[in-house]
Every structure is written in C-alpha cells, then in structure tokens.
Amino acid sequence: MRPAVLPDVATLRATIAAARAARPGLRVALVPTMGALHAGHLSLVDRAREAADVVVVSIFVNPTQFAAHEDLDTYPRTMEADLDALASRAVEWVFAPSAAEMYPTGFQTEVRVPRVATGLCATSRPHFFGGVALVVLKLLNAAMADVAVFGEKDWQQLQVIRRMVLDLNHPTQIVGAPLIRDPDGLAMSSRNAYLDATTRAAALALPRALQNAAQAVAAGARDVATLEADATRAIAAAGGRVDYVTICDEASLERSQAITTGARIFAAATFGSTRLIDNVGLLPGVAAG
Ligand code: PAF
C-alpha cells in the first residue's frame, strides 16, 4: 500500500501524535529526502525501519540549498514513482509540504554551522549548508521523530547536521547510513539521472580514483599531497572538472596533515554538466551512527 501523503506540518504532527497515543512507546523515524528516490534512499528507509516502528519520509526539494545558477527548476521530481518505491518498503507516511508551507511569506530565519560548513563543498557552494541546516531543523522540529537517518554519501552534510543537533540540544537521534554504489562503482545520487552513457562511463573515474587512493594507503602510501594529486590527475584525465580532492579527518573535517586513523578522501567533480561527490575511508575511525 502507498504511504499516506501529509501536506503540512499540522497534519504531520497530528498524525504522529495520534499514532503515539494509540501505541505508547512507539518509535518514529524520519528520512529526509528531496525525492527522485533510488536504491540509496531505500537503504536509508531500511535503516530507519531497523531503528523504529513507523517511518515518515519527507519529500521536499528545498529551494534554500540551491544557488540561483543551480538546478532547482530541473531537479528531478518523480512523486508517483517515489510513492510506489516507498510502498515496496511499507512506509507509513510521506511528508510532502509546499514551498509556501516551509517558507511562509516574510520568512527570514537563518541557521549556520560555520566551522563544519567550511571547505570541501562549502567552497564552491557557499549557500548550501545554511539551506540544508535550516530545512533539516524545520523537518526535525515538525516530526519530532525519535531518529532521523541521513546518508554518508553527503558526509559533510551529515557532520553539519550532527553538530547542529548537538549544539541545539535537539532530541532526535541522528543516524548515518552507508553510501550505496551502483554495480559499476558510481555512488548512487538522484543527479546520476542527468548522465548519458558516455558521461557516466567517464564519471567512473571519480570512485576509481578514490578507491585507488584507499588501495595505495593499504599498501603503505602515507603522503597526503601525493595521494590527493594522483586522484586529481586521474579524475581530470577522464574529463572531470575537479572541484576538490581533499583528505580530511572524517569527524572534524579538518585537512589531514598525515594519514592517521579517521582519514577519509573527499572529492567533487563535474562531468558534462553534472556535479558529483564521493568519499572513501582511508583508515576508517568514526563508527557510523
Ligand atoms: O540530502 C538531501 O537529500 C537533502 O540535502 C536533505 C537532507 C533532504 C535536505 O534538503
């Protein structure tokens, strides 16, 4: 059965409150998404189901995390297919608010997590994490779920959300779920739908370069600058326009001076007109939440 679609915050709150009243101790999980759901999203739903009795998936293409020149207008919107996909996981509710519901006339509040939202994706997308933090806080406040699940593909986003929730004493537990790859190695993303076959084949250089870095570290390589340069060169050779290739500590996101426990390689590159991100643990340290 398809999930019930809840169009506004009042209905979401009333629905969850009624379910909690009917079943004391009920655990609720929230999975925030922008729709165009793929198997990576469904793995978040599966993780949510492990952690809770009922699951609400939000589908909202959040305008505040897109810059004027980005793909807000063309971002894939596939609500009917999304509802079918969520029916396959017996998701109870979809929260699908309008932009006017989330950002009423006169809206002016900002949420900033300045240090974690520095470097990596924030350099070329300075607006992005403010928009994400704002909408995620609004979604967390609307649902007041016990847990909320986010994918580790957007590793910096996950750290921004973890920091925000800690700093603001939000009671919802944040759970990270592993990045899911297609069989060819590309990290699953709604934006992969933009890639034609040729561009997609070229884009495989991105995960390959990061896996090669991990293999080099496993074989004893320890020079941060060399590992970053090798990956950058491999991505560029395949036609990718490299935004960054950076090795950071996976918890603080500060650039690594040496390859130590918790080192992770992060990269963003544009193939054709599609910007892709990826990350791979080099010497994993932080356990996924
Ligand atoms: O990762 C996403 O899909 C979005 O950034 C999120 C967390 C749903 C906020 O709009």
CATH architecture of the largest domain: 3-Layer(aba) Sandwich
Number of strands: 9
Q: Cα distance, first to last residue?
A: 30 Å
- pLDDT < 50 stretches: none
Largest sheet: number of strands, sense, barrel closure: 6 strands, parallel
CATH class of the largest domain: Alpha Beta
Number of helices: 10
Total of domains = 2
Characterize the structure shown:
- With 289 residues, the chain is of the alpha/beta class.
- It folds into two domains: 174 residues, HUPs (Rossmann fold), CATH 3.40.50; 91 residues, Pantoate-beta-alanine ligase, C-terminal domain (Pantoate--beta-alanine Ligase, Chain: A,domain 2).
- Helices cover 37% and strands 19% of the residues.
- The protein is built from ten helices and nine strands.
- The strands form two sheets. Strands 1-4-3-2-5-6 form a six-stranded parallel sheet, sandwiched between helices. A three-stranded antiparallel sheet has the order 7-8-9.
- It is globular and about 60 Å long.
- The model has no long low-confidence stretch (mean pLDDT 97).
- Bound molecules: pantoate (PAF).
Keywords:
Rossmann fold; binds pantoate; 289 residues; alpha/beta; globular; 10 helices
Please give the structural blueprint.
Layout: E1 4-6, H1 9-22, E2 28-33, H2 39-51, E3 54-59, H3 79-87, E4 93-95, H4 99-102, H5 121-124, H6 128-143, E5 147-151, H7 155-167, E6 173-177, H8 197-203, H9 205-218, H10 224-237, E7 241-249, E8 263-271, E9 274-283
Parallel strand pairs: 1-4, 2-3, 2-5, 3-4, 5-6
Antiparallel strand pairs: 7-8, 8-9
Helix pairs in contact: 6-7, 9-10
